[in-house]
Amino acid sequence: MRIFNIIVHITTLMKGERKIAIFASGSGSNAENIVNYFGKNDSIKVSLIISDKKNAYVLERAARLNVLSVVVPKSDWETGEKILVLLREHQIDFIVLAGFLLRIPEILLHAYPDKMINIHPALLPKFGGKGMYGDKVHEAVVAAGEKESGITIHYINERYDEGQIIFQATCEVLSEDSPADVARKVHALEYAHFPGIIEKVAAL
């Protein structure tokens, strides 16, 4: 009876495991933080990292972390059909954008409704939209004389940075802060909050 109960418990865990894919275009520091966060989690696993850039450093991080990575060229993101096949092959349940710069194809939005989230390095709706990413955001925040910045975690829709907001966290922007100073504060918020929000939303 005890052996049977153990088998049932293991089977339940296997059925309940949520497989995450991360889309990333750059360095992948958030991706690495997410992988490490779920490293000992029995119910959520980062199974796949997809990048649109063959030289993105996130691919080296994936190799070091023993996570499968695939490069999908920009041309294949126009329709998204090959990406959807790839996601289904690996039984992906949830998608996380972590520094990913391309617009998500409609076919993926329909296949993963409310199962795809992004993190933006500012307090949306301010400083969002096409072309607003990375240092460009922090430069704009400082140039505008903002007193605070932060992060926004939101669902993905067909428009850049306009999906429903899930979570925001703020940091103070001092008058003497440079864009690099703001970036450091925002990165700290990303590392502190993003994995935990993924864990909560992916379980829904």
- Biggest sheet: strands, sense, closure? 7 strands, mixed
Strand content: 15-25%
The total domain count is 2
CATH superfamily of the largest domain: Formyl transferase, N-terminal domain
CATH topology tier name of the largest domain: Rossmann fold
H-E order: HEHEHEHEHEHEEH
CATH architecture verdict of the largest domain: 3-Layer(aba) Sandwich
Categorize the overall geometry: globular
Rg result: 18 Å
Structural class: alpha/beta
Strand order of the largest sheet: 3-2-1-4-5-6-7
Taking the alpha carbons of the first and last residues, their distance comes to 32 Å
Task: Produce a short descriptive summary.
This protein has 204 residues and is α/β, with parallel strands linked by helices. The chain has seven helices and seven strands.
Description:
With 204 residues, the chain is α/β, with parallel strands linked by helices. The protein folds into two domains: 1-113, 3-Layer(aba) Sandwich (Rossmann fold); 119-204, Formyl transferase, N-terminal domain (Rossmann fold, 3-Layer(aba) Sandwich), CATH 3.40.50.170. The chain contains seven helices and seven strands; from the N terminus they run H-E-H-E-H-E-H-E-H-E-H-E-E-H. A seven-stranded mixed beta sheet has the order 3-2-1-4-5-6-7, with helices on one face. Helix 2 packs parallel to helix 7 and helix 6 (135-143) packs across helix 7.
